């Protein structure tokens, strides 16, 4: 038995689905079901007795103590977080509460549980904290990619809150001996990605005939990894990672945002051409840049490749095609997440003056 937190969100749900497909081991899935948590992501495992879903908060100490005592997990995998940079700029409070205070309470509850386990179980126990490359800050064009040895320089309220949680996890290992593992992964994409993030927002907006809002000059670089590859990396780290170590996870896929948007448009032009015969690229609109926007992220994944033998299965070309196809085949899922709260956010976020297009034909 393992305990997963945040398993109704984008990456957590993919992890739960892959876990139940790959192993017979049951799991408890603790999720608060914020705007980003969606039980429809888990429709295919409803009724599977190995999946025990509990709605609740990682900051709820009493609930955590009860779940740990009742289910006696051999590991905890912590996905639960507020995850959207733009929302963190708009209102950081929830990020501090969940990502910092919630992670602290989870660590404390796990420490109390782990501390009284029988010797063998205590040694085998793992707490895996899922984090982001954004804790490292922004790279200049010629800087080497982020290695695990790089210092933290978080720039957004989101990345600062994740960096704080990473530091807490590290401290709980050094101070109390808790057998922790941390993964810092690059930008994910794939099925069940909430359409406030770049790739699903572009797909959904394109199909709805809306603008495709590109921040600033569109030349910011992100390093993209198909979500199933992130999930396989987490499984591998859980299985073979050394306690106290951190592992950077990425697929060597750096791309400027405008190139991503153009690729999405080209795939849609091929798979679902517009009725008027024009390219979806004509919907690209350059908008005001995000405040404090990090220019470039890139992951040096050599440690996890060398020490744990992990490699991604997808290239960006195969992963993005699968992703666009998934959204085309799951219009019902998209409609379901586009609630009133979603519309309010997207509409207020993009009421911005277009600025002249400078890289549209990249
Ligand atoms: P998401 O926003 O899609 O999902 C987060 C999930 O956590 C939701 O189901 C939500 O209901 C749940 N949650 C939020 N607050 C909670 C709380 N207090 N208690 C219990 N559950 C709570 O996020 P995601 O993109 O799936 O990211 C998952 C994790 O991976 C996060 O920790 C994030 O920082 C990290 N990460 C994400 C990316 C990425 O590209 N999305 C990359 C690297 C790391
Ligand atoms: P996002 O998906 O929010 O991930 P993160 O900020 O965590 O990297 O954004 C990815 C990149 O795309 C980032 O450089 C911001 C940019 N972006 C846009 O240009 N337009 C958009 O509408 C969104 C949501 C993001």
Automatic annotation (TrEMBL):
What this protein catalyses is: dTDP-alpha-D-glucose = dTDP-4-dehydro-6-deoxy-alpha-D-glucose + H2O
The name this protein carries in UniProt is: dTDP-glucose 4,6-dehydratase
Give the EC number. 4.2.1.46
Provide any one GO MF term from the record.
Answer: dTDP-glucose 4,6-dehydratase activity
Domain of life per record: Bacteria
Class of this enzyme:
lyase
Any single biological process term in GO: nucleotide-sugar metabolic process
**Pfam families for the chain:** GDP_Man_Dehyd
Q: Which residues form a coiled coil?
A: none
Entry keyword annotation includes Lyase: yes
Q: Which cofactor does it need?
A: NAD(+)
**The NAD(P)-binding domain covers which part of the protein?**
3-323
Keywords (alphabetical) are: Lyase, NAD
What protein family does this chain belong to? Belongs to the NAD(P)-dependent epimerase/dehydratase family. dTDP-glucose dehydratase subfamily.
